[in-house]
Amino acid sequence: MATLHGVLKQAETEGVAVGHFNVSDLVTLKAVFESARDQNVPVIVGASEGERQFLGARQIAAMVKSLREEYDFPIFLNADHTHSLASAMEAAKAGFDWIVFDVSTLPLEENIRQTRTAVETLKAIRPEILVEGEIGDIGSGSEIHDTARDMRKGLTTPAEARQFVAETRIDTLAPAVGNMHGMLKSMVAGGTKKRLDIERIRAIKEQTRVFMTLHGASGTDDGDLRRAIAAGITVVHINTEVRLAWRHGLDSALSTQPNEIVPYKLLPPVIDSVKTLVAARLALFSK
Ligand code: G3H
Ligand code: ZN
Fold it and tell me: Looking at ligand 1, which residue's alpha carbon is closest to its atom 8?
């Protein structure tokens, strides 16, 4: 069975990216898994601290492990945006393959100190676990935001990235390169798109040679996503678009089956709605 490190290495070599989709329930997990299987591409599911609180860290780890083993399929699990070492250790012990240790709101030196400690502690629990660090400001909240952030603020510089990677010994880096978490209303309607700083991505990759993750990818221009992958992005995170597809699917299932009460009859159209979204994103990332 492939390891997550092996899957990232292969994607990097082929100049493609692995899709990462956040899940909150069995409906979204099934949709992501089925989409990836249909296209026969590896996939990562993520559960942030809030999503883990709802799902149970050990329960989502058991579900992903059972899919991986029963279908002999490369699906991996990430403990997304983990803000404390205690929570990261809990996820590592539960069997997560990857931890995004996110203390990016702290000053750089303190971020480096805490991230280095997290790398050492988590690899002592499970040596094969991957640890991601984050620098720069990409905001928070995979939701619909009313106001736009100033995207020029908090961008990651190649020099900072080089220092951060060298001093923390992280496996993967989450930079701020024009990306942001969540979507504006105009993005949901399709009128505006997030745009990425492709030259910054290329320069950070050259300076660090580490795997890079693009967070906050929902609502990003498709051409920019392709160019970002060519410039050095190896994993792309999508959450808000998954949640939107889930909500649209649920609204439509409830309105077309107003008297249905059986969950396994009501929820398949919700799975289909999320699958359609995930399939389109996976096709784009693996080209
Ligand atoms: O970690 C999760 C992702 O960065 C999702 O961002 O909600 O903008 O897709 P998004
Ligand atoms: Zn993120």
Answer: 216
